[in-house]
Amino acid sequence: MKIGLYFGTFNPIHIGHLSIANHMVEFSDLDQVWFVVTPHSPFKKKSSLLDNHHRFEMVYQATTSYDNLQPSDIEFKLPQPNYTINTLVYLEEKYPKHNFALIMGEDNLKGFHKWKNYEHILDQYHLYVYPRISEGNINTKFNDHDKIHRVKAPIMEISSTFIRNAIKDKKNIRPLLPSNVWNYIDEMNFYK
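RE: above sequence
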């Protein structure tokens, strides 16, 4: 089975995340997409994150009606801050029959050369890149790489930051979230 790993803080998960993941399953050779909820990205301030279990619960709620989209809390069990390479090595050992690939936005590909052990990741894993509107250029060594697959997914310009700010400003952003995720955020009084 070929699994696409979609890493993120998902703070919160929204319809953009789901649309991209579903597109990857339907229009690429990936069999499943696992939403890997990251406890703490080395590139983000931890203070803005909801607790791990709340973000995982929202991803779980968002994916319940999709057979090929799964939540994963695998990184909660690894030392922090964690790096993608460590997670990949752990998953290879735990699921030796699966083939893993990374899903990332074009904006992340622009900074991919800064990732820990990025050369090893590219040697061992395929990258599925979806389009994003962002500043900067992609390193030319990634332009025609045989392990980097550009997937013509819809461009989703919805961000979790925008959603958090809109909730704080008492805006109705319910259409941007799966209904059960919106209900969970509302019940728990998050982001207000």
